[in-house]
Amino acid sequence: MATAPALPRLQIALRKSPLSLCHAQYIRDRLLALYPSCEIVLRGVTTQGDLIVDRPLADIGGKGLFIEAIEKSMADGAAQLAVHSLKDMPMEVSEGFTIAAVPAREDPRDTLVSDKYTSIESMPAGAIVGTSSLRREAQVRRRNPGVTVNVLRGNVATRMARMQEGRYDAIVLAAAGIHRLELNHRIAAYLDPDEFVPAVGQGALALECCSDRPDVIAMVAPLIDLPTLHAVTAERAFSRKLAGSCKTPIAGHATFRGSELRLVGLIASRDGQDMIHAEMTAHVDPRDPNMQAADTLGRALGDEFIARGAARFQTV
Fold first, then answer.
1. Has 295 been annotated as catalytic?
2. Which of these is catalytic: 29, 50, 59, 88?
3. Per-residue pLDDT reduced to its tens digit, 65-97
4. What is the pTM of this model?
């Protein structure tokens, strides 16, 4: 058991969605196991990203729309910690804030959810696939140019309901969220992360706080999983090097094989017909608290993509 925290009471900010609540409850339970005398309160925050669900995220301001209101709640003192899906966080953390911990990652893969089909390739021309992600759209179109990809946003239950209403023949969702919500039975197929590359940070949680709160940083430090932190550091460095945004289909997935960190990257046109897909490895000690080697790996793969003409994919 950890030493008693400096804070007798901790308020955690989160998005008002069932999945965000699952994430926050998981972190709360981990912290209570360490600090049983601490009172931990969960505070739901309505974000702009949750309010506007009829347009692609890229058209309404990007990932920051899920973060701004939550960061304001911490800046105002209404919360001391936030729990985010790391894939929803911008590549540059807002000034005055820090990612204090990244716990062990859940399954980073994407899944196909469908009552009709068990693979993207088996869908007939005109079948409708729902997703709000340009990254997923590009990779779906690459594997089956005949399908129609339509925008689908909202929480997991909403997306599944839209499919059951007959508006979509299949949807693509992150495995981690489905697992957290105990909806594994809805998965028709897991998508190979080497071939259908996940979003940068997918499956990982980010614990964010104000950078001037060493007490909060110290409190969540025991939750850091170093192998996960190395992996997502490499992925985010890769995306940052390419100036990745919600308007460019970029993907990155890093995994350890012993002391070798392997990073697979992808950048594509929205229709998936033009794509760079490559990988790079580096020797990285998964127990080392210094993230420099992982960051260098991500930037090096980004440099390779730039040398291969990645600038042609960028959208202003």
1. no
2. 88
3. 779 999 999 999 999 999 999 999 999 999 999
4. 0.91
